[in-house]
Amino acid sequence: MFENDHILRVTAMSGMIRAFFISDRDTVEALRRAHNTSPVVTAALGRLATGALLMGADLKGEQDTVTLRIESEGPVRGMTVVADSKGDVKGYPMENLVLIPANSQGKLDVGGAVGAGTLSVIKDLGLREPYTGQIPLVSGEIAEDLTYYFAASEQIPSSVALGVLMNKENTVRQAGGFIIQLMPGADEEVLSRLEERLASMKSVTSCLDEGMGPEDIMNLLLSDMEPEINSRQQVRFHCDCSRERMERAILSIGKKDIKSLIDEGQPVEAVCHFCNSKYRFEVAELRELWLRAAER
Hints:
This protein folds into 2 domains: 6-237, Hsp33 domain (3-Layer(bab) Sandwich), CATH 3.55.30.10; 243-294, CBS domain Like (Alpha-Beta Complex), CATH 3.90.1280. It contains 10 helices and 13 strands. It has helices at residues 25-35, 39-56, 110-114, 143-153, 188-200, 204-209, 214-222, 243-252, 255-264, 283-294, and strands spanning 6-12, 17-23, 65-72, 78-84, 88-93, 117-124, 131-136, 158-166, 172-182, 228-234, 236-237, 268-271, 278-281.
């Protein structure tokens, strides 16, 4: 299903520029179906997931992950996505059926749906403590917020573009984006050339909708800057939830609360936030979990 979704890792100008380009329509569509999201929530969650995949492409360890979490005052209330170094992403919105008017350009009002709030970036790199950075949201449009995050928290001049284009029947028509970053040693001439090309470029979803892929967009922005594709990786929506994880989640509430569930005499259905998979536990299974909790 996700064979067309992929990300490019790129360097240019002898390493003075590094960049990541992605097309992930099927991945964002899978997120939409998993959470039955309205168009504006699909656009917001899809942009955040695309941004996380782009950042995940820069992770080194096989178990490394990056989590992007938005907590906000808008009607969507917040979103969480998690991406890893293997190209997998999962995520969920706090509210899935937000309906608000289009913005002044007649487009989905992602900034209005998200509203004011904070963006937290949590990188789990296998160290004792994960790295966490937090910024106030600049616009709620996601790309601008990530651009500000890179400048404020990582001191890396960056240009971030993220887009999700919807069909009239509320399916994802296009999704993708890029991150372009200037490395130490990049001079003003390189910056000026990049700024000119970014300013003259159409939206990333317009480019994708015209049939351009990540490599075409790379060439559009980095032509004559000697771009070199370092790797190409497939990406996908993938949740690693399992019955065993749900058992651990039930065990974590403690034997007193598990006993309360048993006393109700009804099966319990545990639901994964990230993919809405449901796991049913019969009363007899809850008793077994209670015994395990009691042994701890």
